[in-house]
Amino acid sequence: MRGAPRLMAKLLYGSGLRLMECMRLRVKDIDFENHQIIVRSGKGDDDRLAILPDSAGAEIKHILQDVKALHEKDLSDGYGEVTLPNALGVKYKNAGKEWGWQYIFPASQRSIDPLSGVIRRHHLDESVLQKAIRNATQIAKIDKQATAHTFRHSFATHLLEAGYDIRTIQELLGHKDVKTTMIYTRVLNRGPKAVRSPLDD
To answer: What pLDDT is stored for residue 2 in this prediction?
Structure first.
């Protein structure tokens, strides 16, 4: 994989993001200093903190240079506005043109917002990443089904294998109930508490 799809796949696996959480990331959601991503209005409309992998930080900074140039061109063409969540656009009229609100993975073309009729640049369509994953698995000759969600499952499974506790993983994934997270202990063929016998060490 290359370019934006490669970076998005890295964030799905390295941060445990859901597909649409990744697509909707905005510039202000990346906290480079604290190595975290603020996931806004995730499943259940809750916000949470996710890990910003050190290995992805430099790539995000690099892609943001291109995104900023695109945004500045949009502004000079009389556009540059994005949709804001929770009717913030009504309260803050020009906030949609601010750099912090721009999508990290913008669409290649501006389009008409069907609700308002305003021409805006939306985030990249999720099918771009889905197709890239499908192509990559075919090239790599991976016979098992792999989707964007596979990266999130792998994130959780590998954290559990590394010895992180189930509550930490639950928090990082944004699961309301620990029972949802417990499925990963079954994936590892471990007991419900994911405890390794001292005899095995």
So the answer is: 92
